[in-house]
Write a structure and sequence with these properties.
This protein has 812 residues and is α/β, with parallel strands linked by helices. The chain folds into four domains: 215 residues, Alpha-Beta Complex (Spore Coat Polysaccharide Biosynthesis Protein SpsA, Chain A), CATH 3.90.550.10; 117 residues, no CATH class; 189 residues, Rossmann fold; 176 residues, Glycogen Phosphorylase B (Rossmann fold, 3-Layer(aba) Sandwich), CATH 3.40.50. Strands 1, 2, 3, 4, 5, 6, 7, 10, 11 and 12 form a ten-stranded mixed β-sheet that branches. It has a seven-stranded parallel β-sheet with strand order 15-14-13-16-17-18-19, with helices on both faces. Strand 1, helix 1 and strand 2 form a beta-alpha-beta unit. The longest helix has 21 residues.
């Protein structure tokens, strides 16, 4: 291991930096430290000689710059690995150990970047690299609080302030571009590595702390801008492919000039010719404006050398621009935010058609068994919102096994069948699905695509309750089948998401049981969040808007001044509307203005059977004399885009359920809509969202099946206006934190950088062999499966399952 420290008049900070290198928990006999001093005059050289005599010291007569100094040391380095650290940084003891641990997992990883924090150990300096199309790099998370995200992940470049690379690779690809002097040499180097077939990783467990003493400040900001602008142009010129460079280079030159014009104190005057125009006097130009012009001048004068470098890179490249752009993350980000520049930036992007050419648009296929239309249930809503979000960056196809009745201008909506599944998979890079999709289309498992499995809905737990009244033999067979389906999904997944941390703990047990919690997945991310993330249901970013009256004065029996309780979704067998109906009956005896409205009784997915509990709730309300007076049912389903009308006429959102295993791990999506509409809530304890209500004071929670407690909670919410107002305030405070873009962030991140799971690399079909996957399902195959199932569960159950299967295929 060779550690390089480049120094220029950094005596005040060098002591702490070099002392931290002595204290590393890396074997001392395997470490050499090379200090390159660029003609310091502050006693830095004497400090190293006197106090760190074991370190190798290279003293330059002039300030060669950062890039040449690093290359100078790299050529003399004896270590397998080359580590760089700023002279004003202090390394954690595990800095090198953690970096090398990741480098040794795969030889394709040529370089890793460490997490860089300020000396307060809280503020971030670097948590990954980002790049705009015009060559300016950004440090991810800069000046933000440390997110403590321990996932090792691909990044475009490692910061030169704390990086570890393979020495041989560093030299083979040309090291840092010495013409850069300083700034963006790390961006250029990282981009080059990716083009040449190597990879760069961000390793957050490898940490250094940076002081920021500002070496460049003595030379003035104008010189810093000069280097940034010149080097950005050189970076993009060398690394973009021919097609994109033709669009991006002229756009970048325009923006470079415009940035120079956005300088305080610059008065250009009016150069337009009109009838009374007079000759203009000479103008005084600020140094900052001149720096941008000088950067373009010197970049142009260096084009012969840059062209040779570009030729060498382009001849050796093995990755396309499209593959690498995914790592940019901020390709269309302006780096100046004055109104004039932002306006010009947008016009330049449009004029040169850079929205698509400077941004990676992967193809994503989202598959669901739910109905896509005006009326949608939770799984379809989730897929719809996921498609809307991902379509901002990717080409998205949302496909249902049923006929679709809704389109969207930003993505394609279609039906998936045996006839087109192969084509849909062939045209995509990422497959996202829920439920039984892969069981129905095993081509997904056999493909080499990146597969994201959405297990926010623990359907096997729902099934235990849903099939409670069925014969034992069928219940056991179904439970076994559901578990097998889930295990196959978990075996194949490159990434999984669930709805809560409690669900995540549950699913981790299943992953461990099938062997997915293993050294490969652990070494890639010790938290395993790169294998299983949390992506809950979300809220729209836009506030709900009421378009028409739907309840008050419209539904016979609900008046304008009534206190309306809203049940925001379907009535399923694992819910408990009966306790709620009884509680409303108790409250209504004292308060005639209390009304309960059920938004949906008939599920919009025709494959979902009519629920027994919906009929029982209707019957109970009738028996108690509440039906049509205090309890009301929408026998159909409210259109997705019309739900705001109902929510905004309600006073309180309600959710009640029984206490069982499904409750513990479910995620009540309707409560998210209550948050969206600013509704205080009353709910049964036990599920993840009731804990959200309790923890954030969003309403009241009560024990399961406790009519008295539920009635008391409803009365409190009706009568205590201070309590109601306080809950309403907390709801409105929390809602912005739970929008879809925040909730689905792990999915967005995966689609930006789709990859094969570390324990599946090179064995995409290990568990799915060709003899197990029938790619074309013949009538003989289905007949054989029906006979097998009949032997397992009996003819009645087999016919029922066959009927449901045919209905799902026909979309009925």
């Amino acid at each position: 291991m060779s550690i390089v420290v480049v120094n220029l008049d950094g005596r005040d900070f060098l002591q702490a930096c070099l002392a931290s290198l002595r204290d590393l928990d890396y074997p001392a006999e395997q470490v050499e430290v090379i200090v390159v001093d660029n003609a310091s005059t502050d006693g830095s050289v004497e400090l190293v000689r006197e106090r760190f005599g074991e370190m190798r010291l290279l003293v330059n007569d002039t300030n060669t710059g950062f890039s040449p100094a690093v290359n100078q040391a790299a050529k003399l380095a004896g270590g397998t690995y080359l580590a760089l650290i700023n002279n004003d940084a202090v390394a954690d003891r595990g800095w090198l150990r953690e970096a090398v641990r990741v480098l040794e997992t795969d030889t394709v990883i040529a370089c890793v970047g460490s997490k860089i924090l300020r000396t307060d150990r809280v503020t971030t300096d670097y948590a990954g690299g980002q790049l705009a199309f015009y060559g300016h790099g950004f440090a991810k998370g800069v000046e933000q609080a440390d997110q403590r995200d321990e996932r090792v992940r691909p990044t475009l470049f490692a910061s030169g302030g704390a990086t570890v690379a393979r020495t041989a690779t560093f030299l083979d690809v040309g090291g840092f571009d010495e013409s850069f002097f300083a700034f963006f040499e790390d961006v250029d180097f990282g981009w080059r590595l990716w083009l040449l077939g190597y990879e760069v990783r961000y390793v957050p467990s490898s940490v250094v702390h940076h002081r920021h003493h500002g070496t460049i400040q003595r030379f003035g900001y104008a010189r810093e801008r000069y280097l940034l602008e010149r080097n950005a142009l050189a970076t993009l010129f060398k690394n973009w492919g021919d097609d994109r460079l033709a669009r991006i280079l002229p756009a970048s030159l325009i923006l470079t000039i415009f940035r120079g014009l956005e300088t305080e104190g610059l008065e250009l005057g009016d150069f337009r010719i009109c009838d009374d125009a007079e000759p203009l006097a000479d103008l005084k130009m600020p140094a900052l404006t001149a720096a941008h012009l000088a950067a373009i001048r010197d970049w142009a004068l260096d084009l012969d050398d840059l062209r040779d470098k570009r030729t060498r890179i382009q001849r050796r490249r093995v990755r396309t621009d499209r593959e690498v752009i995914k790592l940019f993350e901020e390709s269309l980000r302006p780096n100046i935010h004055t109104p004039a520049f932002v306006e010009a930036f947008g016009k330049v992007v449009d004029a040169f058609d850079l929205t698509d050419h400077a941004r990676a648009r992967s193809s994503v296929l989202i598959l669901t068994q739910d109905h896509i239309g005006e009326r949608m249930a939770g799984p379809a809503i989730r897929c719809w919102e996921m498609a809307k979000l991902l379509a901002r960056e990717h080409e998205v196809v949302l496909a249902s096994t049923q006929d679709t009745e809704r389109d969207h201008q930003a993505f394609t909506v279609t039906r998936v069948t045996d006839a087109n599944i192969d084509e849909l998979i062939a045209r995509t890079e990422v497959v996202i699905f829920q439920g039984f999709i892969m069981h129905q289309f095993p081509q997904i498992a056999a493909s080499d695509k990146a597969v994201l499995v959405d297990v926010y809905d623990p359907f096997h737990l729902e099934g235990l309750n849903l099939r409670k009244d069925e014969p034992a033999s069928e219940r056991y067979a179904t439970a076994s089948s559901d578990t097998r389906v889930l295990n196959e999904q978990f075996e194949r997944a490159d990434f999984l998401v669930c709805a809560s941390d409690k669900q995540r703990d549950f699913w981790l047990g299943q992953l461990a049981a099938i062997g997915r919690v293993n050294p490969a997945t652990f070494d890639a991310d010790e938290s395993l969040r790169s294998l299983l993330g949390v992506a809950p249901f979300g809220l729209p970013s836009e506030a709900p808007v009421k378009r028409r009256d739907v309840l008050r004065g419209v539904v016979d029996g609900i008046g304008g001044d009534d206190f309306v309780l809203l049940w925001g979704g379907g009535i399923y067998n694992w819910f408990d509307p009966l306790t709620l109906v009884r509680a409303v009956g108790q409250v209504a005896a004292e308060h005639d203005d209390v009304k309960l409205y059920f938004m949906g009784a008939a599920h919009p997915n025709p494959a979902v059977p009519r629920m027994r509990m919906a009929a029982e709730a209707h019957r109970l309300a009738d028996e108690l004399g509440l039906l049509g007076a205090h309890v009301f049912f929408n026998d159909g389903w409210v259109d997705y885009d019309a739900r705001a009308d109902y929510l905004l006429e309600a006073d309180v959102g309600v959710s009640t359920h029984f206490e069982h295993i499904e409750t513990a791990y479910s995620f009540r999506t309707r409560i998210l809509d209550y948050l969206w509409a600013g509704l205080p809530m009353v709910a049964t304890e036990g599920d993840s969202l009731s804990r959200l209500i309790h923890d954030h004071d969003l309403g009241l929670t009560v024990p399961a099946e406790d009519v008295g407690a539920l009635a008391a909670a409803i009365k409190r919410m009706r009568n205590d206006r201070d309590l109601y107002a306080a809950c309403e305030t907390e709801v409105n405070k929390l809602a912005p934190q739970m929008t879809w873009d925040k909730a689905l962030a792990p999915i967005v991140e995966f689609c930006r950088q789709p990859h094969t799971a570390p324990d599946r690399s090179g064995r995409a079909q290990q568990y799915v062999s060709t003899r197990n996957v029938v790619m074309t399902r013949s009538p003989v195959y289905y007949a054989r499966r029906f006979a097998e199932y009949t032997r397992e569960v009996g003819p009645g159950a087999a016919l029922g399952h066959a009927r449901n299967f045919v209905r799902s295929r026909l979309g009925r």
